[in-house]
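## Example record

The block below lists the input lines for one assembly entry, exactly as stored, with component labels intact.
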Amino acid sequence: DTGVSQDPRHKITKRGQNVTFRCDPISEHNRLYWYRQTLGQGPEFLTYFQNEAQLEKSRLLSDRFSAERPKGSFSTLEIQRTEQGDSAMYLCASSGGETGISYNEQFFGPGTRLTVL
Amino acid sequence: QKEVEQDPGPLSVPEGAIVSLNCTYSNSAFQYFMWYRQYSRKGPELLMYTYSSGNKEDGRFTAQVDKSSKYISLFIRDSQPSDSATYLCAMRSYDYKLSFGAGTTVTVRA
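Predicted structure tokens for the full assembly:
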């Protein structure tokens, strides 16, 4: 499967715990995005990377959230001191490439569903 | 007011009907317009992408953009039960972050 993959698919944690999610983009893509989706809403932009550089962060990304893409390949999203309001689906997407894949088309992974008890 | 407003639905149609989905937007900087399909508990799947006013057709799907009215539509012809899903409109300006509508849930009855 050459699509975007995310791990884990589901995470249940207690309030106050730290959690980390991983995203592996489509291999030839150099842009990687994180979005958050709550029930009944569309995804909301959190942050994006071009290669290893984090170029933009939404105001939704509080100080408890940190994202990295250390080698310009996979990315991690960490949430520290989780709160019940962090419960959501965390989606990763990628775009860009050199072999005819449009920079404009973002392809999403299956998401990580976080439940904070 | 949200940048992107989407008809909330839900929509329930008989098999074979035409499904019509609509979004309006307020940010005149939006230049690129997409429709995604999302099945329950799955990630969004890109259906259609366009950047100009007018119609774009792909099989049973037609995307329509009217930049002067800030209005986009998606039409699904000959709808099938497998088309039952939530449809999300999305758009962006020259930066790369997508702004999504809240989604319309469609059920196609066999």
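Chain B touches chain A at residues 4, 6, 32, 34, 36, 41-46, 49, 51, 88, 90, 95-103 (CB under 8 Å). The first strand of chain B starts at residue 4 and ends at 6.
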